[in-house]
Amino acid sequence: MIHRMQPDPRMSGPSQPLPLEGITVVAVEQAVAAPFATRQLADLGARVVKVERVDGGDFARGYDTAAGGLASHFVWCNRGKESVALDLKDPRGLDVVRRLVAGADVFVQNLAHGAAARLGLDAGTLCAAHPRLIAVDISGYGSSGPYADKRAYDMLVQCEAGLVSVTGTAGQPVKAGIPAADIAAAMYAFSGVLAALVRRGTTGRGGPVEVSMLEALAEWMGHPLHHAMHGGTPPARTGVAHAVIVPYDAYPTADGGRVLLSVQNDREWRRLAEQVLERAELAHDPAYATNAARVGNRDRTDALVGAALKALGTDAAVARLEAAGIACARLRDVREVAEHPQLAARDRWREVGSPVGPLRSLLPPITLPGGDAAPMGPVPALGEHTGALLRAMGMTDDEIAALRRDGVVA
Fold first, then answer.
1. C-alpha angle 357/59/32, rounded to 5°?
2. Measured between alpha carbons, how far is 180 from 158 in angstroms, rounded to an integer?
3. Which strand (E) or helix (H) includes residue 228?
4. How many whole angstroms separate alpha carbon 223 and alpha carbon 208?
5. CA torsion, ordered 324, 325, 331, 336, to nearest 10 deg
6. Of 81, 62, 57, 76, nearest to 183 (Cα)?
7. Under 8 Å CB-to-CB from 257, ≥6 apart: which residues?
8. From the CA atom positions of the chain, what is the Rg in Å?
9. Quick one: CA dihedral 341, 343, 346, 349, positive or negative?
10. What pLDDT, on the 0 to 100 scale, is given for residue 13?
11. What's the Cα-to-Cα distance from 54 to each of 39, 386, 403, rounded to whole Å?
């Protein structure tokens, strides 16, 4: 069941408007990186006009049909936007985008390298024509350098940024199960827009914002990168275990679940030995009493912990670990996350509209108590807002009909 969020009783006075109310964003976007960035802006109150191709729109619409017939990626990244479908290869379609940009505060694009420049929609060109505009170019590898022209999909960038090299098991590197490179670029584009809006508030000028997927994800690789660059060795792939802390792993329980626990220091080990393993003699045994010793005896230590938890159901294992003050977590699958008791208790679920009816969706993680609620607008159908936007520009119904006939708009 989905409930409406109740006002926070600690807050008094009139509700504050959403931070980006009155800001208009135009996005020529596709896939994940740019759409996820602009969805963050929509969540904070911006009006986002999404420009799509007339022949199928954003290709993420076709990734799957898992969300009630819609693509799960598209539903995730595009709620609360207006969709206008245009053929940008036709001068009339391109003119519509330019007119939209002229009235916008922010423009975002993640077209293939060079495509925006050929259309005159690159950040440099647009900001020169519109000094207050903030124009964001999101690319795979940046606008220059030997990789500038390379095709850049999330998995490829995960490989180039080294993420795959530190993820997985000793025998098998694996990519992250979420589009980490896309998300990293999206969040830096989002924060870059916010920073540029603050600067425009003091200087009156916008300007370009550039984000590359490689550079964003390389920043997220900070710990292993600095460790390796400054004399260490790259961390070993250890699955969900920890390379230098033991015990720190996911252990099976009697009912088929798995519980991850983390012992951060030797005091915690003593509590684990006495209260969870019920083997008090292990607390001061030289083979286990220090983390260095436990790392050296990783297999034996894991076997002891595994045997104790295997005798318990998941609930009982978590209860015993928490009673002992040991950090722990259930290894949940995605369906279990959708029913997570913490998300339910904090009333984080809403329903959003879509062409196939209401869909369950999480509130954005930025919470602004005392302000207006996140709009959580519907997921748009392809070209759902084309007619309204063209009429707002002053086009007549006959002019719009002619553009539809010619395949310039949809």
1. 85
2. 7
3. helix 222-229
4. 29
5. 100
6. 76
7. 313, 314, 317, 330, 331
8. 26
9. negative
10. 57
11. 21, 11, 11
Phi, psi of 107 (to 5 degrees): -125, 135
The percent helix, strand, coil of the chain (3-state, each to 5) is 40, 15, 45
Q: What are the Cα distances from residue 404, in Å, to 57, 196, 206?
A: 15, 37, 34
Separation between Cα atoms, residue 267 and residue 78, nearest integer Å = 48
Pairing of strands 327-330, 349-352: unpaired
Q: Tokens for 76, please give them.
A: 């995730």
For the entire predicted model, the pTM comes to 0.92
Average pLDDT across each block of 10 residues of the chain; the chain has 410 residues. List them in order: 42 77 98 98 98 96 96 97 98 97 98 95 96 97 94 95 93 94 98 98 97 97 90 84 92 97 96 97 96 96 97 97 97 96 96 97 93 93 97 96 97
8 Å CB contact between 289 and 283:
yes
